[in-house]
Batch of 2 targets.
Target 1
Amino acid sequence: MHRSRQTAPALLLCALAALAGCAAAVRPPAVAQAQAAAGALQLESRSKHSGGKGGEEKLNLRPIIGIVSQLGDPAPKGHSYIASSYVKLVESAGARAVPILCDMSKEEVERRFKAVNGILIPGGAQDLRPGQPFFDTVQQLVDLTIEANDNGNYFPLHGVCLGMEALSVAVSRNHSILSDYDSENLPSPLFLTDIAASGRSRFFSALPPQVVEHLQTRPYAMENHAHGLAWTAVEENPRMKEFFDVLSLSVDRVGKVYVSTMEAKKYPISATQWHPEKNAFEWTPDKDIPHHPDAIEVTQEVANFFVSEARRNFHAPASQDEEEDLLIYNWAPSYTGKHKYKGEEVDFVESYFFPLAPEFKRQLAAKRQARQAQRAPAAAAAAEE
Ligand SMILES: *[C@@H]1O[C@H](CO)[C@@H](O)[C@H](O)[C@H]1NC(C)=O
């Protein structure tokens, strides 16, 4: 900053006048006390930063969350996307985001898994069958998360909407475990199961009591899905029943009941069929997203819950250079929610786009060719009969 010679003394005089005003209002002993307290606090915060003192839990104060990208609208051709609201969700609670692209190689997904402290699987619309890039990436991340935790390495994962559905398919190994629901654009209340109501769930116990009360008594859970998980499907699938506690239920337009919140019994894995990120960060006027201040608090507290879980993990990029190369700050979001944005999907106010890897594009082209080649002889055979 450039300042002229004449204004510098004037500024100094102002500062002195302010100090004099201050000294008149505050008694000198308070100044000495403030200085002593500040010195002690600075020492304490330094020791906390390096991992806490005896007895206190060690926390990772620079948590990073991996967020999975997906194919399709609003991504332009040859790209995958992440809706910015998921990035904002983790950023709002003091974490940074790293994209995990659905077209990445298994090796690269694993490398990123070892650099992040939690995984967020976003909502959207994808084919949840093995062999599909988004689903395969989710399956690998779920398997890596379970393996890490089994090895005593606390590692959280949270799925939202499609993310919860993908998690259900990945854990159940049954891609017909989901059923149809009429719950698009239907903000709803949550009905807590006994486990959640009696304070035995990590997810609901972490939320302040007034937030849990609002979620039960007001339609603040932004539901926006055509598929979902029936409680009977959890009960009937031995893998699901052993793995998950159902924490809340909600009801669709025609009275069908689905699982709206669940968490793993033995792992820091949780899922919401509803969208915590939309209340504070999505603004499409075509949807009835709850924006009441108490609904915004739902976004904030779910973010606090998930990022607190991530602070218990100590994965880290190999170097500062690697960290900087991985972070989402290398990309700029597009304003996809703008009125008359080209593309059907205007539900997301902002989205990040990532070019597909050349190798992935080659594989797609090869699969397409193989399908065409299969179809050609089949058609010829049919003509002969
Ligand atoms: C998959 O889940 C659905 C819904 O619970 C069930 O009807 C079906 O029998 C299951 N399939 C297998 C192979 O277990």
Target 2
Amino acid sequence: MPLSLLLLLLLASFSLSFSDPRISEAGIYCGATKTTNLIPAFIKEMESLSQLITTHHFATYHLTNSSPTIYTLAQCHHDLSQTDCLLCYAASRTKLPRCLPSLSALIFLDGCFLRYDNYSFYNESVSTQLDTVTCSASNVSIVGENERLEFNKSVGFAVGNVSKIAVRDGGFGTVEVKGVYALAQCWESVDRDGCRECLDKADKAVRGCGPKREGRGMNAGCYLRYSTDKFYDNVGETEDNHGLSGLGVIMAMVLGTAAFLMLSLLAAYAVYRKFAEIKQGRNSLGLISTSLSRSGLSFKYETLEKATDYFSDSMMIGQGGAGTVFMGTLPNGQNVAVKRLVFNTRQWVDDFFNEVNLISGIQHKNLVKLLGCSIEGPESLLVYEYVPNKSLDQFIFDNKKTQVLNWKQRFNIIVGTAEGIEYLHGGTQIRIIHRDIKSSNVLLDEDLTPKIADFGLARCIGADKTHLSTGIAGTLGYMAPEYLVRGQLTEKVDVYSFGVLVLEIVCGRRSSSFVENSGSLLEIVWRLFKSNGLAEVVDRSLYDDFPIKEVLKVLQIGLLCTQAAVALRPSMDQVVLMLTCKDCDIPIPNQPPFLNASALEPASPSRSYSTNSFISNAARKLEVSYSSSESSSVHSSDWPLRSRDLMQK
Ligand SMILES: *[C@@H]1O[C@H](CO)[C@@H](O)[C@H](O)[C@H]1NC(C)=O
Ligand SMILES: *[C@@H]1O[C@H](CO)[C@@H](O)[C@H](O)[C@H]1NC(C)=O
Ligand SMILES: *[C@@H]1O[C@H](CO)[C@@H](O)[C@H](O)[C@H]1NC(C)=O
Ligand SMILES: *[C@@H]1O[C@H](CO)[C@@H](O)[C@H](O)[C@H]1NC(C)=O
Ligand SMILES: *[C@@H]1O[C@H](CO)[C@@H](O)[C@H](O)[C@H]1NC(C)=O
């Protein structure tokens, strides 16, 4: 008899420990006010809450003298086991940073609630701004009108009763009325009157869900849900409410009967704990992308925080369009580059996971390798291989000429970069457009092997699409005209940027710097090409120590890549072929687009912009001149050859 009891208990404890932590997202609200410097306080608050929530179902925390002030509250539904409560909290904590840097935010998962704000909101029960109701999309499968009314009535009874029960029983209740299951939970910081007020409001709202299978009322101080599925656990059977005292009783029985049975119970408990730990670890990291943690790409946020000396300014090595880059040293001594992405919108989060999934499988000698990422902390981080030498721009535009690259080195850099881009465009199943090829995104390792960095703007495009219309992001001076003016994005955008880069490497000058009376680099090279004087433009610091034929060939390829007509630009594999073959015929380039100097000179020559009013202004200006100078016969995929008209010289 005790043995079968014990078996039952073990079974129960296992099945309960693997019950559902209900982490599906029911609602999220991000405050409109944005702030700065919130992240350090946010991290501390979330850490403290996770300590408190290991032993309770409810916790609040307020860090005194933090600036800006921040108050946090976490509440698990009372039927969740302590383990599931932790899991649910971990999930909400992983999802809430989507709202950063909002000054306030809250998230309802189906098993818990998490909120932060800049004032003490703990006893708030209703709010005109925050309270919402959501009904499921699918109707209950009922044919007759009578049955529908019957169901409607059951819903009304269920939510009405469960609200009453919750108010009576200290803030939590569940009920079942004719196949309709309902749960109500008030936050523990809300008093009885507040709880009643809150649930009354939710009750009225949720009733309106009518014939829908599910409804959720989510207010400032409570949560109310009904469903035709039984979604909650029975309180009293869970291990942490009455389960533990039950365990004590049975332990005593077991002690009284046979010592070895108790030993096996303890052993089983240890196993259960182990399982719970594993489950917890897997869940908190793998919620968003289980494939990530399986692939071993996950880093702990704390590890990277320490590795970069808490993201100190002295460790900062770069600032890209998508985030700041820090150098870090992992506990095993390995140096890494950590890119810190601060999300403002849902879009950013999606981009981030895209990026990780996208480039973790991509490896090439001319691409900076992605080592992993961290997704469980308040910010998402990417970890790249650390490339010790400087970026290409620091070599070729160095006024002091501390280390001048000779022709052989420059040529190898050009070929390597071309191969890296070629791989991005066609080396894997997915096509990737880098969108921000420029000299500061080409890193050089000790052997001066080029490695393309910053895939932050990379997007994967479907094989069926020839171009994507996207927001303009990239760096002026490198941007292809069709992209700048219309946001039309194809691989040829990278080809154009690469062409500019080639001219820069050969000439040792920035494309975005203008020389009085001679115009942009592109313009100068083009004019000299027409007058057979290209040798003049080659970087003086090479002291004529170069094979002129090869240099001219490379310049010509650069001009081919920067042609105004998208269709005339070669693809990257053609570029690589032309660069590496000895006696190929290089086509004669057409005229590149000459962008108006004054419209395009940025304040600082090599900065990245993502959404910059300057760019949109410039683009708008160009769009105007584009439309006015062009007849309607030109289709968007054919960039007009009459670019002279468009790009007012
Ligand atoms: C919270 O932020 C809002 C909006 O910035 C501000 O008006 C309010 O004074 C702040 N409250 C506290 C307690 O700091
Ligand atoms: C909440 O508490 C504050 C004081 O902490 C009090 O001023 C306020 O009236 C309370 N609100 C409710 C709805 O009880
Ligand atoms: C659900 O029922 C409503 C009427 O009560 C109807 O208007 C709606 O189209 C139904 N939706 C679905 C998905 O069946
Ligand atoms: C609770 O449910 C019973 C039927 O199960 C019903 O008669 C009663 O009116 C309900 N109470 C409320 C407040 O809805
Ligand atoms: C019943 O369904 C109707 C719509 O079909 C809806 O307007 C009403 O609020 C629902 N709830 C109750 C309790 O009658």
